[in-house]
Amino acid sequence: MTTAVQAPSWLPDVRITLAQLASGILEYAEGFTGGTPFRLPYPANLQLALDRLTLLAWHQGVPPPGSVVELLQLAHTPFAEWSLVLTDADVDPEESLLAYGRPTVTCEELGKLRGDVEAELRENALMHGVLDKSQAHDAPDSYVAFRKLLISKPAITAFDLDANLADPHLALLAEEVRQAYADAPPEAIADGIVRTCQGCHGLRLPLDDDRTWACVDDSCPDPSTAGPNHRAADGVQWLRRELRTFIAGPGRAELRIAEAVSELGVMARLWPDFDAYDLSAFDQKPWVADIKAWRSPTRLARRLRQGLFAVPDDADRAFIVIAREQVRAHPRYLDRLQRACPAVGPGQRIVAVSEDQFINAVSRRAEAGR
Q1: Which sequence spans correspond to the domains of the chain?
Q2: N or C: which end of the chain has fewer CB within 10 A?
Q3: Alpha-carbon gap, residue 198 to 224, rounded angstroms
């Protein structure tokens, strides 16, 4: 009988180390996008991640990064090219933490798992504030209008923002709407112009050559199509990073699925009961769903294992719906997710399905009821 070799007690966990590195990178990046020049020391999470990666490298007999600068250079490299073995790290070989100097969705998801504390506090404080105010005024339509604005307009001019705040539903949350946005970063401006993306309506930023402009949203449905240009003098605002990733990104799928359900003649409600879940379909014996757009099924599984949404007693069926973009990028996404999180497998109270599977199931039930 072969006995498994136990890792030394001093050896860091690879997954936690990468998540800590991701958190440090996000904090480091925030220092630049916040409009203030970066000053030493580096974020503590970056230095701690370097120390832990050094221990892992020594244990594996490979050279470690020599400094935080080298670590940031390594973060641009796909994990498949790292000399370190990253078994059980919840990453795919082609993924990286940085692309063109900016955090990737992989970095965002890893940071979220470990707890990108400052960003999560900002996101949670803002969203909880919106929920509290909407509930206090019994204004579910205000909450829905707030989320729809963030999803549909991740980049917005000052004039357009003011015009949207004239909506009575949004007027209640005017302060929170303004907190959700920040000035477009300096690198987004060239020749007095700010460029946008038609696919996600966010910003297009320059790549390394400073001549090629590209959408930086990994989940954008059409990143190659340029949107309208705005004058920088118009005061272009950009949705804050954590809200772009965890509200606007999955929100595009939420709006798309709700529209598809409505086109089938089925009542669709977004974020009912003040965001108890993402979508409800059918008035009688409703189907309820949380919609997810995480790039990695294993990282999503880890998140889901921390807790699933509460299914209402009157719900006939409950789902985790995976956005179409993720299933197309990873054809075995559902298999990997359900293996890593059996609680959303076949026969469970909440079942993971693809966007297309969900819409087809709604269509079949609607047809059967006619």
Answers
A1: 14-115, 136-239, 243-368
A2: N
A3: 8
